[in-house]
Amino acid sequence: MKWKEKFSDFPSLNTDRLILREITLEDTEDLHHYASNDDVTRLVAWERHTNLSESKQFIKTFLPKYVVPWGIEHKESGAFIGTVHFVWWDEANHSAEIGYVLSQDYWGQGLITEAANAVISFGFEKLDLVRIQARCFLENDGSERVMKKLGMTYEGTVRKAMLVKGTHRDLKLYSIVK
Question: What is the set of domains in the chain, with CATH numbers?
């Protein structure tokens, strides 16, 4: 199920420093800023964007594949600085997986933890989730720190779990339960 089947309007969320909102084509340049950064894209499953057209296409075709793809807007600057989303949602088993990416300009400020906390609360309260998991590449220490700050528990390493950029990658698996 997608958010459109459950909610009449896109479920915007507010935190102290962020607005989690629907992503629009007006976000193309800001998305391209971080999606063209090698340090950001080496830690995600998708390829680095080389031009604005790729970023525009990403907004139109890739992001809608997620259950609820929130854009992260920084309240103070008004900039679109990343995304946080449910990668998948298993309604029958009340479980989902959360994913996120943040512009390197905003790393180390606790913003992705703030955004992900809001999404986890939304999942438990509005989607009736019982379990939310997250995964990261073995070398993604920043994402692993976020998972720990979210109160997630390490469940193990899933070997050769994802084919990414031509290579089967091991993933660390964390989860939080209601």
Answer: 3-129 (3.40.630.30)
> Beta strands 80-90 and 69-74: pairing type?
antiparallel
Eight-state DSSP code of residue 101: E
How confident is the model over 25-48, as a mean pLDDT?
92
Is the pLDDT score of 21 beyond 70?
yes
Can you spell out the DSSP letters for 109-173? SSHHHHHHHHHHHHHHHHS--SEEEEEEETT-HHHHHHHHHTT-EEEEEEEEEEEETTEEEEEEE
d(CA 94, CA 150): 19
Judge whether 140 and 100 are in contact, CB under 8 Å.
Answer: no
Q: Please tell me which residue, 153 or 41, carries the higher pLDDT value.
A: 153
Q: What is the DSSP letter of 57?
A: H
Nearest to 129 by CA among 70, 89, 84: 89
Q: Please state, in angstroms and rounded to a whole number, the distance separating the CA atoms of residues 115 and 98.
A: 11
